[in-house]
Amino acid sequence: MAASMVRTCRFVWRHGSCILLRPTSLYLSLRCKFHCSSTAHNGLLFSLNKRGVLKDSFPENAAQDRLPQLLQSGAQTVYCGFDPTADSLHVGNLLAIIGLLHFRSAGHHVLAVLGGATAQIGDPSGKTSERERMAADAAEANTHSIRESIQRIFTNHELQFHDSSRKLGTVTVLNNLSWYKDWGVVAFLSEAGRHFRMGTMLSRHSVQSRLKSADGMSLTEFTYQVFQAYDFYHLNQIYGCKIQLGGTDQLGNLMSGHEYIHKMSGEEVYGLTIPLVTSSVGDKLGKTAGNAVWLNRDKTSPFELYQFFLRQPDSSVERYLKLFTFLPLAEVERLMEQQREDPGKRLAHKRLAAEVTKLVHGKEGLESAKRCTNALYHSSVQALEEMSDEELQELFREAPFHELLLEPGTTVIDTCRRVNAIPEGPRGYRMVVDGAVWINHSRTDKPDQVLIPKLHILSNGLTLLRVGKKNFYIIKWLSL
Protein backbone atom coordinates (compact mmCIF):
# COMPACT_ATOMS: atom_id res chain seq x y z
CA MET A 1 0.00 0.00 0.00
CA ALA A 2 2.86 2.36 0.83
CA ALA A 3 4.31 1.81 -2.62
CA SER A 4 1.04 2.64 -4.31
CA MET A 5 0.81 5.78 -2.19
CA VAL A 6 4.18 6.96 -3.41
CA ARG A 7 3.20 6.34 -7.00
CA THR A 8 -0.09 8.20 -6.82
CA CYS A 9 1.00 11.12 -4.66
CA ARG A 10 2.28 14.22 -6.34
CA PHE A 11 2.67 17.22 -4.10
CA VAL A 12 2.22 21.04 -4.19
CA TRP A 13 1.92 23.79 -1.51
CA ARG A 14 0.72 27.25 -0.56
CA HIS A 15 -1.18 29.51 1.82
CA GLY A 16 -2.99 27.82 4.69
CA SER A 17 -4.12 29.08 8.05
CA CYS A 18 -7.18 28.48 10.15
CA ILE A 19 -9.81 30.83 11.52
CA LEU A 20 -13.00 30.93 13.49
CA LEU A 21 -16.34 32.37 12.35
CA ARG A 22 -19.26 32.68 14.67
CA PRO A 23 -22.12 30.25 14.01
CA THR A 24 -24.75 31.94 11.86
CA SER A 25 -27.95 31.01 10.10
CA LEU A 26 -25.69 29.60 7.43
CA TYR A 27 -24.41 27.05 9.95
CA LEU A 28 -27.99 25.95 10.61
CA SER A 29 -28.59 25.80 6.88
CA LEU A 30 -25.50 23.66 6.37
CA ARG A 31 -26.50 21.39 9.23
CA CYS A 32 -30.05 20.94 8.06
CA LYS A 33 -29.22 20.48 4.41
CA PHE A 34 -26.48 17.92 4.98
CA HIS A 35 -28.42 16.12 7.69
CA CYS A 36 -31.46 15.71 5.50
CA SER A 37 -29.47 14.09 2.70
CA SER A 38 -28.61 10.39 2.72
CA THR A 39 -25.98 10.49 -0.03
CA ALA A 40 -22.34 9.69 0.77
CA HIS A 41 -21.00 13.03 -0.38
CA ASN A 42 -23.58 15.07 1.50
CA GLY A 43 -22.92 12.85 4.50
CA LEU A 44 -19.30 13.97 4.35
CA LEU A 45 -20.23 17.65 4.58
CA PHE A 46 -22.66 17.01 7.42
CA SER A 47 -20.03 14.92 9.23
CA LEU A 48 -17.37 17.61 8.82
CA ASN A 49 -19.82 20.17 10.09
CA LYS A 50 -20.68 18.07 13.16
CA ARG A 51 -17.01 17.50 13.89
CA GLY A 52 -16.36 21.25 13.66
CA VAL A 53 -13.94 20.88 10.73
CA LEU A 54 -16.25 22.71 8.33
CA LYS A 55 -17.24 26.17 9.51
CA ASP A 56 -18.67 28.20 6.65
CA SER A 57 -19.00 28.33 2.88
CA PHE A 58 -18.88 30.87 0.07
CA PRO A 59 -21.02 31.85 -1.73
CA GLU A 60 -23.87 31.37 0.71
CA ASN A 61 -26.19 29.70 -1.77
CA ALA A 62 -23.65 26.88 -1.95
CA ALA A 63 -25.08 25.74 1.38
CA GLN A 64 -28.46 25.14 -0.23
CA ASP A 65 -28.26 23.15 -3.46
CA ARG A 66 -25.27 23.72 -5.71
CA LEU A 67 -22.40 22.39 -3.61
CA PRO A 68 -24.27 19.27 -2.46
CA GLN A 69 -25.33 18.61 -6.04
CA LEU A 70 -21.76 19.04 -7.25
CA LEU A 71 -20.49 16.52 -4.73
CA GLN A 72 -23.29 14.12 -5.62
CA SER A 73 -22.29 14.23 -9.28
CA GLY A 74 -19.00 12.37 -8.68
CA ALA A 75 -15.45 12.80 -7.45
CA GLN A 76 -14.44 16.47 -7.26
CA THR A 77 -11.07 18.20 -6.85
CA VAL A 78 -10.44 20.19 -3.66
CA TYR A 79 -7.40 22.32 -2.90
CA CYS A 80 -5.78 24.02 0.05
CA GLY A 81 -2.67 26.19 -0.02
CA PHE A 82 0.27 26.49 2.36
CA ASP A 83 2.85 29.25 2.11
CA PRO A 84 6.33 27.96 3.07
CA THR A 85 7.20 30.90 5.32
CA ALA A 86 9.08 28.47 7.60
CA ASP A 87 10.75 25.11 7.04
CA SER A 88 7.88 23.27 8.76
CA LEU A 89 4.13 23.46 9.09
CA HIS A 90 2.64 23.55 12.60
CA VAL A 91 -0.42 22.31 14.47
CA GLY A 92 -2.32 25.38 13.29
CA ASN A 93 -1.94 24.06 9.72
CA LEU A 94 -2.76 20.46 10.60
CA LEU A 95 -6.51 20.95 10.55
CA ALA A 96 -6.35 22.10 6.92
CA ILE A 97 -4.47 18.89 6.04
CA ILE A 98 -7.05 16.85 7.95
CA GLY A 99 -9.79 18.55 5.94
CA LEU A 100 -8.09 17.38 2.74
CA LEU A 101 -7.73 13.88 4.20
CA HIS A 102 -11.48 13.70 4.90
CA PHE A 103 -12.25 14.65 1.30
CA ARG A 104 -9.72 12.15 -0.03
CA SER A 105 -11.18 9.38 2.14
CA ALA A 106 -14.57 10.14 0.59
CA GLY A 107 -13.12 9.55 -2.88
CA HIS A 108 -12.41 13.14 -3.90
CA HIS A 109 -9.11 14.28 -5.39
CA VAL A 110 -7.08 16.75 -3.35
CA LEU A 111 -4.40 19.28 -4.21
CA ALA A 112 -1.98 20.59 -1.60
CA VAL A 113 -0.46 23.74 -3.06
CA LEU A 114 2.83 25.08 -1.74
CA GLY A 115 3.33 28.80 -2.27
CA GLY A 116 6.92 28.90 -3.45
CA ALA A 117 5.98 32.11 -5.28
CA THR A 118 3.42 33.67 -2.92
CA ALA A 119 5.63 33.15 0.14
CA GLN A 120 7.93 35.74 -1.40
CA ILE A 121 5.02 38.21 -1.52
CA GLY A 122 3.53 37.65 1.94
CA ASP A 123 -0.08 37.13 2.94
CA PRO A 124 -1.30 40.15 4.97
CA SER A 125 -4.27 38.23 6.41
CA GLY A 126 -4.20 38.32 10.19
CA LYS A 127 -0.89 40.23 10.26
CA THR A 128 -0.31 43.59 11.91
CA SER A 129 2.90 44.30 10.00
CA GLU A 130 4.59 43.20 6.81
CA ARG A 131 6.64 40.01 6.78
CA GLU A 132 10.35 40.28 6.22
CA ARG A 133 11.25 39.69 2.59
CA MET A 134 11.94 36.03 1.88
CA ALA A 135 14.73 35.14 -0.52
CA ALA A 136 13.95 32.73 -3.35
CA ASP A 137 16.45 30.12 -2.12
CA ALA A 138 14.91 30.18 1.39
CA ALA A 139 11.44 29.69 -0.08
CA GLU A 140 12.76 26.77 -2.14
CA ALA A 141 14.37 25.09 0.89
CA ASN A 142 11.22 25.56 2.98
CA THR A 143 9.07 24.21 0.17
CA HIS A 144 11.18 21.05 -0.07
CA SER A 145 10.95 20.45 3.68
CA ILE A 146 7.19 21.01 3.87
CA ARG A 147 6.60 18.84 0.82
CA GLU A 148 8.23 15.92 2.61
CA SER A 149 6.17 16.59 5.73
CA ILE A 150 2.86 16.59 3.87
CA GLN A 151 3.76 13.47 1.94
CA ARG A 152 4.59 11.77 5.23
CA ILE A 153 1.23 12.69 6.77
CA PHE A 154 -0.74 11.51 3.74
CA THR A 155 1.21 8.24 3.77
CA ASN A 156 0.64 7.75 7.51
CA HIS A 157 -3.06 8.36 7.03
CA GLU A 158 -3.32 5.76 4.29
CA LEU A 159 -1.32 3.17 6.24
CA GLN A 160 -2.80 3.75 9.72
CA PHE A 161 -6.31 5.17 9.33
CA HIS A 162 -7.77 4.40 5.90
CA ASP A 163 -10.57 1.86 5.50
CA SER A 164 -9.28 -0.29 2.64
CA SER A 165 -12.84 -1.09 1.55
CA ARG A 166 -13.24 2.53 0.40
CA LYS A 167 -11.51 3.92 -2.66
CA LEU A 168 -9.20 6.84 -1.98
CA GLY A 169 -9.04 9.88 -4.20
CA THR A 170 -5.68 11.01 -5.55
CA VAL A 171 -3.43 13.52 -3.81
CA THR A 172 -1.23 15.95 -5.69
CA VAL A 173 1.31 18.32 -4.15
CA LEU A 174 2.15 21.37 -6.30
CA ASN A 175 4.35 24.43 -6.09
CA ASN A 176 2.73 27.58 -7.47
CA LEU A 177 6.16 28.83 -8.52
CA SER A 178 5.86 26.37 -11.41
CA TRP A 179 3.18 28.51 -13.10
CA TYR A 180 4.57 31.93 -12.15
CA LYS A 181 8.26 31.50 -12.96
CA ASP A 182 7.81 32.22 -16.67
CA TRP A 183 5.41 35.16 -16.26
CA GLY A 184 6.71 38.69 -16.76
CA VAL A 185 5.20 41.38 -14.56
CA VAL A 186 3.80 43.34 -17.52
CA ALA A 187 2.27 40.25 -19.11
CA PHE A 188 0.73 39.10 -15.81
CA LEU A 189 -0.81 42.49 -15.03
CA SER A 190 -2.10 42.78 -18.57
CA GLU A 191 -3.63 39.30 -18.46
CA ALA A 192 -4.92 39.05 -14.90
CA GLY A 193 -4.79 42.54 -13.38
CA ARG A 194 -7.46 44.04 -15.61
CA HIS A 195 -10.12 41.73 -14.09
CA PHE A 196 -9.68 43.03 -10.53
CA ARG A 197 -11.40 46.15 -9.25
CA MET A 198 -9.65 48.43 -6.77
CA GLY A 199 -12.82 49.15 -4.79
CA THR A 200 -13.43 45.48 -4.17
CA MET A 201 -9.80 44.81 -3.27
CA LEU A 202 -9.69 47.76 -0.88
CA SER A 203 -12.85 46.58 0.88
CA ARG A 204 -11.27 43.31 2.07
CA HIS A 205 -10.93 43.16 5.85
CA SER A 206 -7.26 42.14 5.64
CA VAL A 207 -6.57 45.28 3.61
CA GLN A 208 -8.70 47.67 5.65
CA SER A 209 -7.12 46.66 8.96
CA ARG A 210 -3.63 47.24 7.58
CA LEU A 211 -4.42 50.52 5.85
CA LYS A 212 -5.51 51.91 9.21
CA SER A 213 -2.31 50.82 10.94
CA ALA A 214 0.74 53.03 11.45
CA ASP A 215 2.85 51.09 8.95
CA GLY A 216 0.16 50.83 6.30
CA MET A 217 0.42 48.22 3.54
CA SER A 218 2.91 47.79 0.73
CA LEU A 219 1.95 47.29 -2.90
CA THR A 220 3.53 43.84 -2.70
CA GLU A 221 1.19 42.68 0.07
CA PHE A 222 -1.79 44.38 -1.57
CA THR A 223 -1.35 42.19 -4.65
CA TYR A 224 -1.38 38.94 -2.65
CA GLN A 225 -5.09 38.42 -3.20
CA VAL A 226 -4.54 38.69 -6.95
CA PHE A 227 -2.02 35.85 -6.89
CA GLN A 228 -4.18 33.61 -4.68
CA ALA A 229 -7.16 34.25 -6.94
CA TYR A 230 -5.07 33.34 -9.97
CA ASP A 231 -3.92 30.16 -8.23
CA PHE A 232 -7.54 29.04 -7.90
CA TYR A 233 -8.18 29.92 -11.55
CA HIS A 234 -5.09 28.00 -12.71
CA LEU A 235 -6.10 24.92 -10.69
CA ASN A 236 -9.64 25.19 -11.99
CA GLN A 237 -8.43 25.29 -15.59
CA ILE A 238 -5.76 22.58 -15.32
CA TYR A 239 -7.20 20.23 -12.71
CA GLY A 240 -10.91 21.02 -12.79
CA CYS A 241 -10.72 22.21 -9.16
CA LYS A 242 -13.96 23.80 -7.97
CA ILE A 243 -13.54 23.79 -4.18
CA GLN A 244 -10.97 25.60 -2.05
CA LEU A 245 -10.37 24.99 1.66
CA GLY A 246 -8.94 27.78 3.79
CA GLY A 247 -9.04 29.35 7.20
CA THR A 248 -11.66 31.95 7.93
CA ASP A 249 -8.95 34.61 7.71
CA GLN A 250 -8.65 33.55 4.07
CA LEU A 251 -12.28 34.40 3.30
CA GLY A 252 -11.37 37.56 1.38
CA ASN A 253 -8.87 35.62 -0.74
CA LEU A 254 -11.47 32.88 -1.35
CA MET A 255 -13.92 35.51 -2.53
CA SER A 256 -11.32 37.03 -4.88
CA GLY A 257 -10.72 33.62 -6.46
CA HIS A 258 -14.43 32.98 -6.87
CA GLU A 259 -15.00 36.38 -8.49
CA TYR A 260 -12.02 36.06 -10.83
CA ILE A 261 -13.02 32.59 -12.06
CA HIS A 262 -16.61 33.72 -12.53
CA LYS A 263 -15.44 36.66 -14.68
CA MET A 264 -13.05 34.57 -16.73
CA SER A 265 -15.18 31.49 -17.39
CA GLY A 266 -18.58 31.98 -15.76
CA GLU A 267 -18.00 28.76 -13.84
CA GLU A 268 -19.28 28.43 -10.28
CA VAL A 269 -16.68 27.52 -7.66
CA TYR A 270 -16.84 27.30 -3.89
CA GLY A 271 -14.88 28.13 -0.77
CA LEU A 272 -15.08 26.22 2.51
CA THR A 273 -13.58 27.57 5.71
CA ILE A 274 -12.14 25.73 8.68
CA PRO A 275 -11.84 26.99 12.26
CA LEU A 276 -8.97 28.64 14.02
CA VAL A 277 -6.97 26.41 16.34
CA THR A 278 -6.16 28.32 19.50
CA SER A 279 -4.20 27.72 22.68
CA SER A 280 -5.86 27.30 26.08
CA VAL A 281 -5.67 31.08 26.55
CA GLY A 282 -7.18 31.82 23.15
CA ASP A 283 -4.03 32.63 21.16
CA LYS A 284 -3.82 31.42 17.58
CA LEU A 285 -1.30 28.60 17.27
CA GLY A 286 1.30 29.65 14.75
CA LYS A 287 4.62 31.24 13.91
CA THR A 288 3.51 34.83 14.49
CA ALA A 289 2.25 34.11 18.02
CA GLY A 290 5.55 32.40 18.82
CA ASN A 291 3.86 29.29 20.23
CA ALA A 292 4.05 26.98 17.24
CA VAL A 293 4.04 23.23 17.77
CA TRP A 294 5.78 22.03 14.61
CA LEU A 295 5.04 19.00 12.44
CA ASN A 296 8.70 18.30 11.57
CA ARG A 297 10.57 16.09 14.01
CA ASP A 298 13.72 18.22 14.05
CA LYS A 299 11.70 21.15 15.45
CA THR A 300 9.12 19.37 17.63
CA SER A 301 9.82 15.75 18.55
CA PRO A 302 7.09 13.07 18.61
CA PHE A 303 7.36 13.17 22.41
CA GLU A 304 6.78 16.94 22.49
CA LEU A 305 3.81 16.68 20.10
CA TYR A 306 2.36 13.84 22.19
CA GLN A 307 2.76 15.86 25.38
CA PHE A 308 1.19 18.95 23.81
CA PHE A 309 -2.08 17.12 23.19
CA LEU A 310 -1.85 15.11 26.41
CA ARG A 311 -1.70 18.38 28.38
CA GLN A 312 -4.74 20.00 26.79
CA PRO A 313 -7.32 21.21 29.32
CA ASP A 314 -10.37 19.05 29.92
CA SER A 315 -12.52 21.69 28.25
CA SER A 316 -10.71 21.23 24.91
CA VAL A 317 -10.23 17.49 24.66
CA GLU A 318 -13.63 16.55 23.21
CA ARG A 319 -13.44 19.30 20.58
CA TYR A 320 -9.89 18.28 19.66
CA LEU A 321 -10.86 14.60 19.37
CA LYS A 322 -13.46 15.61 16.81
CA LEU A 323 -11.13 17.97 14.96
CA PHE A 324 -7.80 16.17 14.95
CA THR A 325 -8.71 12.48 14.87
CA PHE A 326 -10.69 10.21 12.58
CA LEU A 327 -12.49 8.43 15.41
CA PRO A 328 -16.23 7.98 14.78
CA LEU A 329 -18.25 10.49 16.76
CA ALA A 330 -19.92 7.66 18.69
CA GLU A 331 -16.49 6.48 19.84
CA VAL A 332 -15.57 10.02 20.89
CA GLU A 333 -18.70 10.11 23.01
CA ARG A 334 -17.83 6.74 24.61
CA LEU A 335 -14.33 8.02 25.41
CA MET A 336 -15.71 11.14 27.01
CA GLU A 337 -18.16 9.09 29.08
CA GLN A 338 -15.30 6.87 30.30
CA GLN A 339 -13.31 9.98 31.16
CA ARG A 340 -16.18 11.45 33.13
CA GLU A 341 -16.47 8.20 35.11
CA ASP A 342 -12.75 8.11 35.96
CA PRO A 343 -11.07 11.48 35.20
CA GLY A 344 -7.78 10.41 36.72
CA LYS A 345 -7.04 7.91 33.96
CA ARG A 346 -7.28 10.68 31.34
CA LEU A 347 -8.25 8.13 28.68
CA ALA A 348 -9.53 10.77 26.26
CA HIS A 349 -6.34 12.82 26.50
CA LYS A 350 -4.16 9.75 25.92
CA ARG A 351 -6.19 8.66 22.90
CA LEU A 352 -6.07 12.18 21.44
CA ALA A 353 -2.30 12.40 21.87
CA ALA A 354 -1.77 8.92 20.42
CA GLU A 355 -3.98 9.47 17.36
CA VAL A 356 -2.39 12.80 16.40
CA THR A 357 1.18 11.58 16.96
CA LYS A 358 0.52 8.49 14.84
CA LEU A 359 -0.89 10.64 12.03
CA VAL A 360 2.01 13.09 12.02
CA HIS A 361 4.93 10.75 12.82
CA GLY A 362 3.62 7.26 12.11
CA LYS A 363 3.52 4.19 14.32
CA GLU A 364 7.26 4.44 15.04
CA GLY A 365 6.85 8.05 16.13
CA LEU A 366 4.10 7.11 18.57
CA GLU A 367 6.23 4.32 20.04
CA SER A 368 9.09 6.80 20.41
CA ALA A 369 6.83 9.27 22.21
CA LYS A 370 5.71 6.57 24.65
CA ARG A 371 9.31 5.46 25.31
CA CYS A 372 10.33 9.02 26.04
CA THR A 373 7.30 9.51 28.30
CA ASN A 374 8.14 6.38 30.29
CA ALA A 375 11.82 7.34 30.53
CA LEU A 376 11.17 10.89 31.71
CA TYR A 377 8.02 10.68 33.80
CA HIS A 378 8.04 7.08 35.01
CA SER A 379 11.82 6.74 35.56
CA SER A 380 11.85 3.57 33.47
CA VAL A 381 15.36 2.19 33.01
CA GLN A 382 14.00 -0.26 30.44
CA ALA A 383 12.67 2.66 28.39
CA LEU A 384 16.07 4.36 28.59
CA GLU A 385 17.75 1.19 27.33
CA GLU A 386 15.37 1.01 24.38
CA MET A 387 15.93 4.62 23.36
CA SER A 388 18.16 5.64 20.47
CA ASP A 389 20.73 8.44 20.60
CA GLU A 390 18.32 10.59 18.59
CA GLU A 391 15.45 10.02 21.00
CA LEU A 392 17.56 10.90 24.03
CA GLN A 393 18.71 14.10 22.37
CA GLU A 394 15.11 14.95 21.46
CA LEU A 395 13.91 14.24 24.97
CA PHE A 396 16.64 16.33 26.59
CA ARG A 397 17.03 18.96 23.86
CA GLU A 398 19.05 21.34 26.00
CA ALA A 399 21.25 18.62 27.49
CA PRO A 400 24.87 18.42 26.32
CA PHE A 401 25.66 15.25 24.38
CA HIS A 402 29.11 13.73 24.90
CA GLU A 403 30.87 10.80 23.28
CA LEU A 404 33.51 9.48 25.70
CA LEU A 405 36.06 6.71 25.50
CA LEU A 406 35.35 4.13 28.20
CA GLU A 407 38.66 3.51 29.91
CA PRO A 408 39.17 0.73 32.50
CA GLY A 409 38.50 1.92 36.03
CA THR A 410 36.42 4.96 35.06
CA THR A 411 34.58 6.16 38.18
CA VAL A 412 31.47 8.21 38.90
CA ILE A 413 33.54 11.28 39.78
CA ASP A 414 35.66 10.85 36.63
CA THR A 415 32.52 10.79 34.52
CA CYS A 416 31.02 13.89 36.14
CA ARG A 417 34.23 15.88 35.69
CA ARG A 418 34.80 14.80 32.07
CA VAL A 419 31.45 16.30 31.04
CA ASN A 420 31.87 19.38 33.30
CA ALA A 421 28.79 18.43 35.30
CA ILE A 422 30.34 19.36 38.66
CA PRO A 423 33.03 21.82 39.80
CA GLU A 424 36.63 20.71 40.14
CA GLY A 425 38.06 19.96 43.60
CA PRO A 426 36.42 19.14 46.91
CA ARG A 427 33.16 20.95 46.16
CA GLY A 428 32.33 18.68 43.23
CA TYR A 429 33.31 15.60 45.22
CA ARG A 430 31.02 16.70 48.05
CA MET A 431 28.09 17.15 45.63
CA VAL A 432 28.30 13.47 44.73
CA VAL A 433 28.59 12.40 48.37
CA ASP A 434 25.58 14.55 49.27
CA GLY A 435 23.41 12.79 46.67
CA ALA A 436 23.15 15.56 44.05
CA VAL A 437 24.11 13.18 41.23
CA TRP A 438 21.77 10.66 39.57
CA ILE A 439 22.77 8.11 36.93
CA ASN A 440 20.02 6.42 34.92
CA HIS A 441 17.37 7.55 37.43
CA SER A 442 19.29 6.15 40.43
CA ARG A 443 20.93 8.34 43.08
CA THR A 444 24.70 7.84 43.16
CA ASP A 445 26.54 8.93 46.33
CA LYS A 446 29.85 7.02 45.96
CA PRO A 447 32.24 9.23 43.93
CA ASP A 448 34.96 6.58 43.62
CA GLN A 449 32.71 3.77 42.49
CA VAL A 450 33.81 2.25 39.17
CA LEU A 451 31.10 2.36 36.52
CA ILE A 452 29.15 -0.88 36.35
CA PRO A 453 27.65 -2.09 33.06
CA LYS A 454 23.82 -2.33 33.08
CA LEU A 455 23.73 -0.08 36.14
CA HIS A 456 25.71 2.99 35.14
CA ILE A 457 26.09 2.08 31.46
CA LEU A 458 22.96 0.83 29.75
CA SER A 459 22.92 -1.98 27.19
CA ASN A 460 22.64 0.60 24.40
CA GLY A 461 25.93 2.18 25.49
CA LEU A 462 24.30 5.28 26.98
CA THR A 463 24.35 6.98 30.35
CA LEU A 464 21.86 9.61 31.48
CA LEU A 465 23.52 11.81 34.09
CA ARG A 466 21.57 14.33 36.16
CA VAL A 467 22.99 16.84 38.60
CA GLY A 468 20.41 18.58 40.75
CA LYS A 469 16.84 18.70 39.49
CA LYS A 470 17.17 19.84 35.88
CA ASN A 471 20.78 19.57 34.67
CA PHE A 472 20.97 16.58 32.34
CA TYR A 473 23.96 15.20 30.43
CA ILE A 474 23.82 12.45 27.82
CA ILE A 475 26.90 10.25 27.45
CA LYS A 476 27.55 7.84 24.60
CA TRP A 477 30.33 5.45 25.61
CA LEU A 478 32.91 4.32 23.06
CA SER A 479 34.65 1.08 23.89
CA LEU A 480 38.41 0.77 23.80
From TrEMBL:
GO molecular function, one term: tyrosine-tRNA ligase activity
BP GO terms, sorted: tyrosyl-tRNA aminoacylation
Subcellular localization: Mitochondrion matrix
Source species, domain of life: Eukaryota
Catalytic reaction annotation: tRNA(Tyr) + L-tyrosine + ATP = L-tyrosyl-tRNA(Tyr) + AMP + diphosphate + H(+)
Entry annotated with the keyword Nucleus: no
Alphabetized Pfam families for the sequence: tRNA-synt_1b
Top-level EC class: ligase
EC number(s) given by UniProt: 6.1.1.1
SUPFAM superfamilies on file: Alpha-L RNA-binding motif (SSF55174), Nucleotidylyl transferase (SSF52374)
Similarity section: Belongs to the class-I aminoacyl-tRNA synthetase family.
Quaternary structure, from the entry: Homodimer.
NCBIfam families per the UniProt record, alphabetical: tyrS
The protein's name in its UniProt record: Tyrosine--tRNA ligase
Organism encoding this protein: Seriola lalandi dorsalis
